[in-house]
Each structure stands twice: as structure tokens, then as C-alpha cells.
Amino acid sequence: MQMDIKFELKSKQRPKLAEEIATALHTVPCYQKAPSLAYKIGDCTLERDGTLRIPDRVDRGTVGSLLEYLKEKGFTGEAEQTEDRLTVSMPEEQFTPEALENLAKLAENKGGLLANCLCCFYL
Questions:
Q1: For residue 67, what are the CA distances in angstroms to 31, 89, 108, 114?
Q2: ∠ at Cα 103 (102, 107), nearest 5°?
Q3: What does the domain layout of the chain look like in residue ranges?
Q4: pTM beyond cutoff 0.85
Q5: pLDDT confidence band for 122 (50 / 70 / 90)
């Protein structure tokens, strides 16, 4: 499943964003011209409306690094909501203070592993 990230861009910011994405991915952007007017940047596509489409074959670490780099350069985007979310919740009353502390430590220490197992970027 691909990730779509929408960037709100002002006039003429899209070419600059395409260049920054290409720099972060160590590649060169390729302008697709009409009818799509998109930029092909490695495996990613920057659409005319400012949506960056990242296919699932792109490594999660690469995506995280790319988004951090773009944020440093002043480009912040919003991931479009998807229906494939998992939420696990339990009433706090069912846990002792010690169990809550252990759960917090487990999430902190094994968060990366759990995120990989659940195919997400963070917990």
C-alpha cells in the first residue's frame, strides 16, 4: 500500500520541493509534462496538486529520513487518512501501577520492533 502525503504549496514551490526530495533520495527529478504534470523522483511521484506518492517498496527508514529532511527545509505535509489503522485499548483500571510501568518500558524498548511487525512508522 502506498503512502500519500499532501503538501500545501504556494506558487512555484513544487519544483523546489521536487529538487529537495531528489536531494534526499540521491536521485534526479524527472518532469513528466502534460497530461500529468507530475515529477517522477526515484520510485516516488510528486503530483500536480502537491501530493507525494510513496510506494510501499520504499524502505520505512528512507521515508522517515525523507520527511525529516523536508521538514528541515520548510516543507511539512500531512499523510492522508487511510482505513488500515489498528488501535488497541484497555481500561486503565485493569492494570496495576507496576504493570503500567512495565508496559511503558516494553513499548519504549521494543517500539521499533513492534512498529516493523505492524508495518507502521511509529507507535
A1: 21, 29, 22, 21
A2: 120
A3: 3-79, 86-123
A4: no
A5: low
